[in-house]
Amino acid sequence: MKKYILGINAIGINTSACLILNNKIICAVEEERLTKKKRTKEFPINAINFCLNKYNISFEQLNSIAISWNPLINLEKFSSSFTSNLLYLPSVLHSSINYFIQELKNKHENNYFTQSISLKNNKKINIYYVNHHLSHASHFFISGFKNASILTVDGFGENQCIGYYKGNNDKIIKIWEQNFPHSLGSFFSTFTEYCGFLPESEEWKLMGAAAYGDSSRFVNLILNLIKFKKDGGFDLELKYFNHYLFHRPKYFSNLLSNYLKIKPNTRKKLSKEYFNLAYASQYVFEKIYLHLINGLYKKNKNNNLVVSGGVALNCLANGKILLNSNFKKLFISPFPDDNGASIGAALYVSNVILNSKNFNYKLSNNYFGPNFSSGQIENKLKKYNLNYTKPNNIYDDATDEIINGKIIAWFQGSLEFGDRALGNRSILADPRRPQIKELINSKIKYREEFRPFAPSILEEKVDDYFESNQSSFFMERALKFKENKKKLIPGVVHLDGTGRLQTVSLKNNKIFYNLINTFYKKTNIPILLNTSFNINKEPMVCNVEDAIKNFYLSGLDIVYIGNFKIKK
């Protein structure tokens, strides 16, 4: 019997939807990819419709709907203003429960809340509102581990911002939690904003800028804002932060600028002082992150670790986990932030509530979005009257162009789900070119000059190029390059000597593997420079029209869409 579960993230930024069939992810897409509104907070109706239409199923055929937020937790405090004054009649859906929940304290299910919709054919569709951090923790079910310790860390979900769990087959058990406002995600967002970037959106800019700073006076100043606890948790010195005061405009209070003796950055470019502040913020972030990880190990001595939540997008910190903890194996979710919470909620419903017997498989790729046949692609190219060719061997053709100094866009197969371009919607270039980073940042991506690019490397060659031989199929961790390799690939070596690598195998992406392998045979370099196919302030390209538009609006030389080549 087919069991379809629709997963939804409809809270906060980057809303999304996914579809699970018999406990396997078969489709997932972010709303932003379909509407072109980056980091949108809009309800993911387009993403939902895409998932259902792709498999030609209706809402009536769904077994369950999973939502990655449990509003029951937010109703635990009785509010007469929300429950007694119903300006909108459907508010009775929460106002009634707000009364009832007062009589059922500590007696109701704490992990999820359920509603049912009865259909005329006597069928019911259950809607499960899964605790936000349990939604993150449920990425355990795609880790391939039968048992593991699980860490969830983000800004906040309902009232929680950190969770320790243990996963065992089809069960996830909470060990410990830390509640808002003592949030590692909000801590990093505060300094993201202080350095002039957009909080809850541009934290990776702060991470990239950290390599250009040094251990100045800011390190101890920021460390003094943190109180580490023996149980693995920590406290923030809250008088310097505003992130928990939702009526206030900034994440930081005025006291912080007096304390740091530097004003918040309002310019586009960073001075040395702000690079130093970025360095200190990343340094303290890592201290807290590793403190949490080692605290988890003390509570649950398991060799396997799963990490999820928005904080797990910090690839620089992720690359240090195995080197600075007792964990032996690590799974970082490929979509750890809230867009992936839709998948986590659906996995929780499938594995825990519905007791699926097919659990704990290892996810090999995240190519769950729209794809286009050769016929569909060619029809679009003809529609826009574009001059195109169809090379006899696309791998030879594309690698020859890259070797000749061209910067290409590579549009193949199904769209990636998550923040990383993993070879299906990518911009690619020769990593041997010393000035390639500056060229792509200024002429194609239109972004800050300090932003690094990823090395996509053949899986079997990681040990030749990196000090630590770790797989990173989803570009989820940054590792140190070996000293003798840096000069060979300057285009992908960040100032701190790291690279946010993507390990590529035949299993997880045959087309991309063959392209890199062809480049390797010609140059003896098993790496291509890889960055997402988009321009600044736009989401990753999704369809053929997006690819064409981005190609002509940027300094790209060539775009390969399927087997077709377009050249300027």
Topology overview:
Elements: E1 4-9, E2 16-21, E3 24-30, H1 31-35, H2 45-54, E4 64-67, H3 71-74, H4 80-83, H5 92-103, E5 112-118, E6 124-130, H6 132-137, E7 147-157, E8 160-168, E9 171-179, H7 184-194, H8 203-209, H9 218-223, E10 226-228, E11 234-236, H10 254-260, H11 272-299, E12 304-308, H12 315-318, E13 329-332, H13 341-353, H14 374-383, H15 394-403, E14 408-411, E15 425-429, H16 436-443, E16 454-458, H17 462-465, E17 477-480, E18 498-504, H18 510-523, E19 527-532, H19 544-553, E20 558-561, E21 564-567
Parallel strand pairs: 1-4, 4-6, 7-12, 12-13, 14-20, 16-18
Antiparallel strand pairs: 1-2, 2-3, 5-6, 7-8, 8-9, 10-11, 14-15, 15-19, 16-19, 17-18, 20-21
Helix pairs in contact: 7-11, 15-18
Summarize the structure.
This protein is α/β, with parallel strands linked by helices and 568 residues long. It has helices at residues 31-35, 45-54, 71-74, 80-83, 92-103, 132-137, 184-194, 203-209, 218-223, 254-260, 272-299, 315-318, 341-353, 374-383, 394-403, 436-443, 462-465, 510-523, 544-553; strands at residues 4-9, 16-21, 24-30, 64-67, 112-118, 124-130, 147-157, 160-168, 171-179, 226-228, 234-236, 304-308, 329-332, 408-411, 425-429, 454-458, 477-480, 498-504, 527-532, 558-561, 564-567.
Could you walk me through the main structural features you see in this protein, from its secondary elements to its overall organization?
The protein has helices at 31-35, 45-54, 71-74, 80-83, 92-103, 132-137, 184-194, 203-209, 218-223, 254-260, 272-299, 315-318, 341-353, 374-383, 394-403, 436-443, 462-465, 510-523, 544-553; strands at residues 4-9, 16-21, 24-30, 64-67, 112-118, 124-130, 147-157, 160-168, 171-179, 226-228, 234-236, 304-308, 329-332, 408-411, 425-429, 454-458, 477-480, 498-504, 527-532, 558-561, 564-567. It is globular, with a radius of gyration of 24 Å. Helix 12 (315-318) links the parallel strand 12 and strand 13 (329-332). Among the domains are: 4-133, Nucleotidyltransferase, domain 5, CATH 3.30.420; 374-567, DHBP synthase (Alpha-Beta Complex). The protein is α/β, with parallel strands linked by helices. An 8-stranded mixed β-sheet has the order 17-18-16-19-15-14-20-21, with helices on both faces. Strands 3-2-1-4-6-5 form a 6-stranded mixed β-sheet, sandwiched between helices. 30% of the residues lie in helices and 21% in strands.
